[in-house]
Write a structure and sequence with these properties.
The complex is a heterodimer. By secondary structure, chain A is an all-beta fold. Chain A is built from no helices and 11 strands. Chain A is 0% helix and 52% strand. In chain A, a hairpin with a 2-residue loop joins strand 6 and strand 7. Chain A is globular and about 45 Å long. Chain A starts with a strand and ends with a strand. Chain B starts with a strand and ends with a strand. Chain B is globular, with a radius of gyration of 14 Å.
């Protein structure tokens, strides 16, 4: 079935750093969504990508939809402590709107 | 702006008991989705409803059932609870049954924590 693989699984950030995370699939997705989830809360939509090659920004976040439609990356520039959380990529599978989620990238603050 | 409202936020049940979770979608949203997220896991799709009819089904156990009511709120009923049912249950909603590909956006609630002891 369609699966999304995220890397890295976790990362440490230092305030001011730029960070990047990837999402890949063996199958084509027509839409890629990036969500952020904080502990005990629901996923919050950050960026939605609808066209291959599309590059979209939302504040300090930038995401791109790969040309092959099998991958996407999310960049966070000038990270701040509140960027901590789990970032999920997701895409619709089948004819409906049910989402397949990647395993998530856990962003933590460097001690 | 109003978001997806879920209740209760926390629920503790014993094995073999039943539980009911409620979801109130964003106003005018007519589609609701239920997801289950186990500890350290990504959310897994359970079931969805559009205009009060089941529109899609995922990995929902036979012990679970759900429905959408005329005011578009939805309830997830879980019976014969097992320890493995302990998870965060999310409801999400979207507008007018349009597909994500056409630009429809799915919004998630804050989730209901179910602990089975």
């Amino acid at each position: 079935g369609q699966q999304l693989n995220q890397s890295p699984q976790s990362m440490f950030i230092q305030e001011g750093e730029d960070v990047s995370m990837n999402c890949t699939s063996s199958s084509i997705f027509n839409t890629w969504l990036w969500y952020k989830q904080e502990p005990g809360e629901g996923p919050v939509l950050l960026i939605a990508l609808y066209k291959a090659g599309e590059l979209t920004s939302n504040g300090r976040l930038t995401a791109q939809f790969g040309i092959t439609r099998k991958d996407s990356f999310l960049n966070i520039s000038a990270s701040i402590p509140s960027d901590v959380g789990i970032y999920f990529c997701a895409g619709p599978r089948g004819a409906g709107n049910k989402l397949t989620f990647g395993g998530g990238t856990r962003v933590l603050v460097k001690p | 702006a109003a978001g997806v409202i879920q209740s209760p936020r926390h629920l503790i049940k014993e094995k073999r008991e039943t539980a009911t979770l409620k979801c109130y979608p964003i106003p005018r949203h007519d589609t609701v989705y239920w997801y289950q997220q186990g500890p350290g896991q990504d959310p897994q799709f359970l079931i969805s409803f559009y205009e009060k009819m089941q529109s899609d089904k995922g990995s929902i156990p036979d012990r679970f059932s759900a429905q959408q009511f005329s005011d578009y709120h939805s309830e997830l009923n879980m019976s014969s609870l097992e320890l493995g049912d302990s998870a965060l249950y999310f409801c999400a909603s979207s507008l007018q049954g349009r597909t994500i590909i056409s630009g429809n956006t799915i919004y998630f609630g804050e989730g209901s924590w179910l602990t089975v002891v």
